[in-house]
Amino acid sequence: MSEINYTQWTGLIGACCAVLSCLMATSRSSSSRHIWLLLTLFNVLFLTEVLAGYRHDIHDVFTNVLRAQSLYDERRVMQGFLVIAAAGFAIMVAGWLMNWARRGSPAEQVAISASLAVFLLLILEVISQHSIDAMLYKHVGPIMLIGWLWLACCIATTCAAVIYYRNHSLRYVAGS
Questions:
Q1: Alpha-carbon gap, residue 47 to 67, rounded angstroms
Q2: Given this model, what pLDDT does residue 102 score?
Q3: Is 69 exposed, middle or buried (0-12, 13-18, 19+ CB in 10 A)?
Q4: Rounded distance between C-alpha atoms, residue 28 and residue 175, angstroms
Q5: Do residues 22 and 157 make contact, with C-beta atoms less than 8 angstroms apart?
Q6: According to the model, what pLDDT value does residue 176 have?
Q7: Residue 81 confidence (pLDDT)
Q8: Fewest CB within a 10 Å sphere: which of 2, 6, 44, 46?
Q9: Residue 127: its pLDDT value, please?
Q10: Which residue numbers in the chain have pLDDT < 70?
Q11: Do residues 150 and 135 lie in contact, with contact meaning Cβ atoms separated by under 8 Å?
């Protein structure tokens, strides 16, 4: 395994916070436990992905297939289509998840949205369109922009889970 860089550390720290806070939130409500468990699982997978970097391996496989088929030079149109398709897919999934979580709290909706944003960032890395990569991999201090975006999403998930935990703790205590 190669040395972990600052961007990866940023993603790992954010994902660890999100995992722990989502686990905390699972202890507060039986009706929403499944949502927080799914968010915990997603963030464990994100943490694993930051360490393993499978998204880069998937990109390399697609690149090799395109080169073998002599289609690599025409990839830009396909990448543009895939970026639009990924955005459309993310919007559809967001709509479905928001409808599914509509009965839930705003905290659940924030955590779901933030996790979906992380997923979309990972998909954009696999697609690897040069203009998007140039933005995501631009250094802002010692950390690439994508690391800051990961951290922002993980902070949103963490805050949402902590707020959910706190609000449901107060109701639990008040109801006793």
A1: 31
A2: 67
A3: exposed
A4: 13
A5: yes
A6: 46
A7: 83
A8: 2
A9: 82
A10: 1, 98, 100-103, 170-176
A11: no
| DSSP code for 4 | P
Beta bridge partners of 144: 139
CA separation for the pair 73, 122 (Å, rounded): 23
**Residue 176 to residue 171: CA distance in whole angstroms:** 9
Tell me the chain's radius of gyration from C-alpha atoms: 18
Look-up of token digits 């398709």: 85
**Could you tell me where the DSSP H helices lie in 69-144?**
75-100, 106-127, 130-136
Half-sphere exposure of 62 (CA within 13 A, CB side): 16
Query: Residues near 147 by Cβ (< 8 Å), separated by ≥ 6?
Result: 6, 7, 8, 10, 11
Phi, psi (deg, nearest 5) at residue 47: -60, -45
Report the alpha-carbon distance of residue 17 to residue 49 in Å, rounded: 16
pLDDT at 17: 98
Report residue 18 CA to chain centroid gap: 10
Give this prediction's pTM.
0.85
Beta bridge partners of residue 140, listed in sequence order: 143
The H or E element spanning position 34 is helix 33-52
